[in-house]
TrEMBL record:
Taxonomic lineage: Bacteria, Bacillati, Actinomycetota, Actinomycetes, Micrococcales
EC class name: oxidoreductase
GO cellular component, one term: cytoplasm
The encoding gene: proC
PROSITE patterns: P5CR
GO molecular function: pyrroline-5-carboxylate reductase activity
Protein name according to UniProt: Pyrroline-5-carboxylate reductase
């Protein structure tokens, strides 16, 4: 297996292509740089949905029980996207079929690199990743932690894969769970804010279409301005907040509600759950 150039990746298999794996899969399809993609899912209905994607060989495990083994034997990069509790059994199933030199990448929250090494062997090239669903539109941020047996070339390979769907942040494994509480769960926080701002617009007399446009385009525009700017969000906020103006009054209410403390508590709760998952809870 060689490190890909900017035009291609080696064959990639998604063992379990649910919401997160499916987002990365669809992002890779859109990028056009993976010549062969395989995906397994339990049901024929889900497999049929993915089979409609260009270049994807989709396998339904209810029709082909050995599908995970077949996919594992056919790819140089294996992305493990099943539920965390299912990971050990899946690894035991595919261990005899993993190609020499293949890279195994976990998408499962809370499952440690040690779990992978215990089943696949200490010399297995394993990574933990934490992408987020904006991979669907090529705007993900993915946390990536390399296992002890990986090489710089393999790290470059996996980084190249995730860079097709967004930005990559390399971190030690002990930061992956914390990262998941910010960027992994973060899109849900943003969507919740849009949802609540839309409700506030409706309560002020706007119809559904107007309320949705006002809230959604405000977030889209603010994100675009942030991306195009060379200043930090605090400064951009100050530029909107005229002294003694309406925005200043609104910001004061949000601060009175201890918004910073609320985000701290929310991300702490997510981190506690990640630790429960790691412990098998």
């Amino acid at each position: 297996m060689t490190t890909p150039d900017s035009a291609s990746l080696p064959p990639v298999a998604f063992l379990g292509a649910g919401s997160m794996g499916g987002a990365v899969l669809r992002g890779l399809v859109a990028s056009g740089i993976a010549p062969r993609l395989l995906a397994t899912n339990r049901t024929a209905a889900k497999a049929a949905e993915l089979a409609e994607l260009a270049g994807v060989e989709s396998i339904a495990l209810e029709q082909r029980p050995d599908g995970n083994a077949v996919a594992a034997a056919s790819a140089d990069i294996l992305l493990i996207g099943v539920k965390p509790a299912m990971v050990p059994d899946l690894l035991r199933e595919i261990a005899p079929h993993v190609r020499p030199g293949a890279v195994v990448v976990s998408l499962a929250a809370g499952v440690t690199l040690a779990t992978f090494a215990d089943i696949l062997g200490a010399d297995a090239a394993v990574f933990r990743s934490m992408p987020n669903t904006p991979a669907l539109v090529g705007e993900a941020v993915t946390g990536l932690a390399a296992g002890a047996a990986t090489t710089p070339e393999q790290t470059a390979l996996v980084r190249a894969l995730f860079e097709t769907v967004g930005a990559v942040v390399e971190v030690p494994e002990d930061r992956i769970d914390a990262l998941s509480t910010i960027s992994g769960s973060g899109p849900a926080y943003v969507f919740l804010l849009v949802e609540e701002l839309t409700k506030a617009a409706r309560e002020k007399g706007f119809d559904d279409d107007q309320a949705r446009l006002l809230a959604e385009q405000t977030f889209i525009g603010a994100a675009a301005l942030l991306a195009a700017s060379d200043v930090d969000p605090a400064e951009l906020r100050r530029r909107v907040t005229s002294p003694k103006g309406t925005t200043e009054r609104a910001i004061a209410v949000l601060q009175e509600g201890r918004l910073a403390e609320l985000f701290g508590r929310a991300t702490d709760a997510a981190l506690a759950r990640a630790k429960e998952l790691a412990a098998g809870g």
